[in-house]
Design brief:
Strand 1 and strand 2 form a beta hairpin. The protein has two domains: 121 residues, de novo design (two linked rop proteins) (Up-down Bundle); 61 residues, Arc Repressor Mutant, subunit A, CATH 1.10.10.10. With 194 residues, it is mainly α. The protein contains nine helices and two strands; from the N terminus they run αααααααααββ. Strands 1-2 form a two-stranded antiparallel ribbon. Helices cover 68% and strands 4% of the residues.
Length: 194
């Protein structure tokens, strides 16, 4: 599907709203709300317009945009909860939230540049995985494992670099973490090499 100039404009406006939200450059009435409420009021309406415009001809791209939007909203909700409990954790997660928004903007750019002549996949949305990250995903499959068990299964040392890769996948929403360990989020099962 080749995008019309109107559709390209809608995607550009979504990217612009995400950038403004990151900078705190929003109407004063919205600035006073929590991160989650800001996204719901300022970004999500534009995202819904993009999703409706692209859905007939670009279903895979729409799915990727939808997944990233839900991931952003989920993270914003977590940040708002943390802000009520612990300021240090809240600041860390807030910076992760802003990075997630930046990644979302970077993901939208190819749609505009190529005028819809490409289809995004979740692999594109994640901007590629390094070897350790791919090994972690493969080791997990549909299992739930602890970090040291994943390291053993992949043949990597359970060191800072490995733990950073685990943490990065977790922060990007690709992995979940509940006792007894890490698991691959269902929407990212497509990252598994069959």
């Amino acid at each position: 599907m080749i995008l019309t100039s109107e559709q390209i404009g809608e995607v550009e406006q979504l990217a612009d709203r995400l950038k403004k939200w990151q900078r705190g450059d929003m109407p004063h009435a919205i600035k006073d709300y929590s991160r989650y409420s800001q996204l719901i009021r300022f970004v999500e309406p534009q995202a819904n317009i993009v999703l409706m415009d692209l859905s007939p001809g670009m279903p895979e791209t729409v799915r990727v945009v939808h997944v990233k939007l839900q991931e952003l909203l989920r993270k914003a909700s977590q940040v708002d909860i943390l802000k009520q409990e612990n300021t240090d954790d809240a600041r860390l997660e807030d910076s992760n939230l802003l990075r997630l928004a930046r990644d979302f903007v970077l993901m939208l750019e190819p749609i505009v540049k190529n005028a819809g002549q490409i289809t995004l996949t979740l692999n594109d949305a994640e901007q590629g995985l390094n070897d350790i990250e791919q090994d972690i995903i493969e080791a997990l499959g549909d299992k739930t494992l602890t970090g040291d068990k994943i390291a053993k299964d992949t043949g990597h040392p359970y060191n800072f670099k490995f733990k950073s890769s685990l943490s990065g996948l977790r922060k990007r929403g690709i992995l979940g973490n509940k006792k007894p360990g890490y698991f691959l989020e269902p929407e990212y099962e497509s990252l598994l090499k069959k």
